[in-house]
């Protein structure tokens, strides 16, 4: 299924490994964080996962959650609900053309 592609895992890994190249906002919602990265960063399937000036919401399947628990825990710890277990993760993405940035929102439910 497209929403659980390696492309999203690779972007999240890039964000984790390159915090100096990312703008992270975690003070707007208790259970979510928003991130911006330069659209010059190579991402897989950008037209699919980062549609131009549109939001794409992806509910990650159970296998994605299990295979990437360490990565998702890293981001969950940035929220106010880090001590609570999450059952679902939504990753919403977009390409904000005016800013020249890719947008990611991780919501932990």
Major sheet details: 5 strands, antiparallel
Radius of gyration: 13 Å
Stretches with pLDDT under 50, minimum 5 residues: none
SS-based structural class?
alpha+beta
- The percent of residues in helical segments reads 25-40%
Q: What amount of the residues lies in strands?
A: 25-35%
Strand tally is: 5
**How many domains?**
1
String of helices and strands:
HEEHEHHEE
So what's the overall shape?
A: globular
The strand order across the widest sheet is 1-2-5-4-3
Q: What is the assembly state of the chains in this entry?
A: single chain
Measure the end-to-end span: 21 Å
Number of helices: 4
Mean pLDDT: 91
What's the topology here?
Elements: H1 6-17, E1 22-25, E2 32-38, H2 46-49, E3 56-59, H3 62-67, H4 69-76, E4 89-96, E5 101-108
Antiparallel strand pairs: 1-2, 2-5, 3-4, 4-5
List keywords for this structure.
109 residues; 4 helices; alpha+beta
Can you describe this structure?
The protein has 109 residues and is α+β, with helices and mostly antiparallel strands. The chain has one domain (2-108). It contains 4 helices and 5 strands; from the N terminus they run αββαβααββ. Strand 1 and strand 2 form a beta hairpin. The two termini are 21 Å apart.
Question: Brief overview, please?
Answer:
The chain is an alpha+beta fold and about 110 residues long.
